[in-house]
Design a protein that fits this description.
The chain is mainly alpha-helical and about 375 residues long. Helix content is about 50%, strand content about 5%. It has a 3-stranded antiparallel sheet, with no helix packed on it. The chain has a two-stranded antiparallel sheet with strand order 1-4. Strands 2-3 form a two-stranded antiparallel ribbon. It comes from Ceratitis capitata.
């Protein structure tokens, strides 16, 4: 037998290709805190059984080429995309919790969907559809009582018409032509005919009356919101009662006329113009100026109503036809009417309208005009 090989010499075929030794960072920490026990060393003869440190094996590996670059970035400064929603311990944070990243505006995740443009567009379209349906419903209900097409006729005015109409109400004695104008069979709009009735001036005069009533009450230290509402409701109630009386009178005495309900409302509303004028005059000339102005304006309004209603009640001012007298009202409803009989009843009806306007003008303004100092003191003591 030959000589034996030395025991302490390592065999060359048992040694791997050794590169640089990788340090074990966790071994020292674990050993320090006693988490990993030290591995014992056992000697069997001349052989040391202590495990050798892990070494970096030199394996040459080349990654296969790719056609597209990797979308995952690596590096020490790269944070994961969900890092904003992580709590301590690696647990994901709940959405919308105050103090965390990625929360919804206002901290209410339930309403985040309403901030989407598609949802907002759908809500807007739905709201527009509801508004259109409501508008159509109101128009249908309003059409049952008053036709919008008929009502537009009375508001077809302009500035020139309003100025000339107010001048006609206060100075009607110089006016000569009181007939209504027609375009073939249709009456022209008020803006083209100063003698045509309108509802714009009565509506604006009613609103002005309420405002002036509040002013007069304030000058007399009697103003209150309740009083303003009382004046507005009282004036409206008197106008409705007046309209009902005129309509019943026409029906009871069987007067055939081309007057319509809106025509009567228009002529009955002109009294608010003279009431406002009388109240404003009383601020300068007190009680004497008020009564003088009321007397004059009552005469002018009466003259205006007599001459205007005369063409509608006493005479047939509409175009003639072979089949008889045809009344073509502003609403576009031709009617066969007889204008020959009941002249005396028609005159009584005209005087009823004129007298009613003067009486209601006094009734709606007698407690509002600005009196002199003595009368004002007595009135304040009464209220």
């Amino acid at each position: 037998m030959g000589p034996s090989a030395p025991v302490g010499t390592s065999m060359p075929y048992m040694q791997p290709t050794v590169g640089t030794t990788m340090p074990d960072h966790t071994a020292g920490v674990a050993a320090t805190y006693g988490m990993i026990p030290q591995q014992p060393t056992t000697n069997f003869g001349n052989f040391n059984t202590t495990p050798a440190p892990i070494q970096n094996q030199n394996y040459n590996y080349a990654a296969p080429p790719t056609s597209q670059p990797s979308t995952f970035a690596t590096g020490p400064n790269v944070q994961p995309q969900f890092a904003g929603n992580m709590q301590m311990g690696g647990q994901p944070a709940p959405m919308g919790v105050p103090g965390t990243q990625g929360q919804f505006p206002g901290g209410v995740p339930q309403f985040a969907m309403f901030q989407q443009p598609i949802v907002q567009d759908m809500a807007m379209q739905y709201g527009q559809r509801l508004a259109d349906q409501g508008k159509q419903l109101v128009e249908n209900q309003f059409e049952k009582w008053v036709s919008v097409a008929k009502l537009k006729y009375y508001f077809a005015v302009d500035n020139k018409y309003v100025i000339n109409k107010l001048r006609l109400l206060f100075f009607p004695f110089t006016h000569r032509d009181w007939s209504l104008k027609y375009d073939q069979e249709n009456p022209v709009q008020p803006r083209y005919d100063i003698n045509a009735p309108d509802l714009y001036i009565p509506a604006m005069a009613y609103i002005t009356y309420v405002v002036v009533a509040g002013l007069m009450l304030g000058l007399q230290n009697r103003f209150s919101p309740e009083q303003l509402g009382i004046q507005a409701s009282s004036a409206l109630a008197y106008s409705i009662f007046e309209l009902v009386v005129y309509s019943i009178t026409l029906y009871v005495v069987n007067i055939k006329t081309s007057l319509k309900t809106l025509d009567l409302l228009s002529f009955a509303g002109y009294k608010f113009v003279i009431i406002v004028a009388c109240l404003l005059v009383s601020t300068l000339f007190h009680g004497v100026g008020y009564y003088v102005a009321l007397l004059y304006t009552s005469l002018t309004l009466g003259f205006f109503l007599l001459r205007t209603l005369k063409t509608k009640v006493l005479h047939d001012a509409t175009p003639a036809a072979t089949s008889g007298a045809i009344n073509y009202d502003p609403y576009g409803n031709p009617q066969q009417l007889d204008y020959t009989g009941g002249r005396k009843r028609k005159l009584y009806f005209l005087f009823l309208i004129v007298g009613g306007q003067a009486f209601l003008s006094f009734l709606l303004s007698k407690h509002l005009y600005f009196p002199d100092a003595a009368t004002l003191e007595v009135r304040n003591n009464q209220f």
